[in-house]
Amino acid sequence: MKKLLIAFLFTISVVSFVNAQKIFSCENRYDADFMVYVVKNRYDADLLVFKVSNQYDVDTDGRWYFVENRYDADKKIWFAENRYDADLLIFIVENRYDAGWRNRSKMHLVF
User: Fold this and answer.
1) How many domains does the chain have?
2) Spatial separation of the C-alpha atoms in residues 101 and 11, rounded to whole Å
3) Which range of residues forms the domain containing residue 88?
């Protein structure tokens, strides 16, 4: 039973890892799964995001690939104009190794 549970959890984590961060930017806030606001200071962010150029480079720690079609996305987001309207505060980083969570309590939004 323990081995079966471990195998199941491993399978779920692999599937989540592969498909977790393909993002579509909606034009309407009501079509989005959650709302994000891009902050100017990395220390104000919940998540440091790096935009990858290949969909196979995504991961659950802030490497996002933006898709053109909403049906190809794992999550749909809307960029809020005000930080208080956002569910998640992000900061765009220039180095892929800087990407990651600063506030892990918001991780449930991207899964």
Assistant:
1) 1
2) 23
3) 2-110
